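Review session, final week

We close the course with one last complete record, chosen because it touches almost every idea we covered. It is Cohesin domain-containing protein, a protein from Roseateles aquae with 192 residues. Go through it on your own first, then we will talk.
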Amino acid sequence: MNAFPQLLGALLLGASLGAPAATLTLIPTSTELKPGSALLIDLMVADLNGKDSVGVFDLQIGYDATLFSFSGYQLGLGLGDAALGQALDISQGGQGTGRVHLGELSLLDTLPVQGQAFKLASLSFTAKQAGVAGFALSQAQLGDAFGTALPVTQLNGVDVTVSAVPEPSSYALLLAGLGLVGLWSGTRRRRD
């Protein structure tokens, strides 16, 4: 078992009095989809008040695996570009049914300007069937460039609705039913 996530978690659990409290939010491209549609969700961090920068994060996102399948993720550039060796991707991706683990550690001496709000990652899902699914953050830990924990006060999840698409046969059945009702009402008028 990889001990790095546990070590990272222990580093992030240290108390940091007076640090700004961050808000983590999941922002979907759409809250209404059809089965087979792709869904992109951005993981945003905000409310750092410009005092600290995020140098490391480790969190899980839960979702309903009967309604969605996890397709992949892409880390944001706020902690550096992992492809250029500026950050270490410690994500474990999809972990079993209905959970995604994301984590990143910046390797930069000086973090880029992150601003009040920025994207930590984008997640891709595919809608499988009709229903309402909640996407929720859990076990969220943030740290500054020195590994000192940054408190997280809010974890904002999101609900996404997948609506059933009527099959062509449903439309044919509806039209046939309307035709029969029309014939029946026409027959009743002729009798009267």
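Two points worth writing down before the exam:
The chain has a mean pLDDT of 82.
The chain has one domain: 4-164.
Good luck, everyone.
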